[in-house]
Amino acid sequence: MHTPTHTHTSAQLARTDTRVHRPAPLTVHPPAPAPAVERRIVGYEHYAGGLVPVYEQHAPTLPTPPRDLTPQPLFDPRAQRYLAAGVGTGAAAAGIGWGIGQALTGLTTGAGIWILAALIALATNRSGATHITQHNTATGLFSRAGGTINRP
């Protein structure tokens, strides 16, 4: 069995060994007194031939009034009217614009040219037959139209 050759006291170890943890002594604080609870008296009740105070914590609760369970509208009616007016106006404007665009597209195609040629023929045809020729060429995205009006 091995016996230690050196014996050290705890005071010597504390001075020489820095790895020993020596926490500071704890300071004990007495508990603070709880704050006094203010107990409000809200009424008195008869008990055992006398009156006993009723504190706020022990007062009976008042019954809640009945709720109104009638169904409510999901959206505000005034907001619905404003929204409907705005959407209706926008839809009407879009429809008018779309309709005008469709009409102009129809007039700018070959039908428009035939209408224009007929109007010119009626305006200039005083006597005799008029011969109208029209040439349409379509290649790729671009097209070309040309025509001649021959009067006798």
Amino- and carboxy-terminal Cα gap: 147 Å
The succession of helices and strands, N to C, reads HEEHHEE
Please give the order of strands in the largest beta sheet: 1-2
**What is the tally of helical segments?**
3
The computed structural class is alpha+beta
The residue ranges in which pLDDT falls below 50 over 5 or more consecutive positions are none
Oligomer: single chain
Could you tell me the number of beta strands? Answer: 4
The average pLDDT score comes to: 75
Question: How is the biggest beta sheet arranged?
Answer: 2 strands, antiparallel
State the shape. elongated
Percentage beta strand: 15-25%
**Range of helix content:** 25-40%
CA radius of gyration is 53 Å
Overview features:
152 residues; alpha+beta; two-stranded antiparallel ribbon; two-stranded antiparallel sheet; 3 helices; 20% strand; elongated
Give a written overview of the molecule.
The chain is of the alpha+beta class and 152 residues long. Among the domains are: 35 residues; 43 residues, no CATH class. The protein is 36% helix and 20% strand. It has 3 helices and 4 strands, in the order H-E-E-H-H-E-E. The strands form 2 sheets. A two-stranded antiparallel ribbon has the order 1-2. A two-stranded antiparallel ribbon has the order 3-4. The longest helix has 32 residues. The relative contact order is 0.05. The model has no long low-confidence stretch (mean pLDDT 75). Keywords: Membrane, Transmembrane, Transmembrane helix.
Question: What secondary-structure arrangement, pairings included, does this model have?
Answer:
Blueprint: H1 10-16, E1 41-47, E2 50-55, H2 77-108, H3 110-124, E3 131-139, E4 142-150
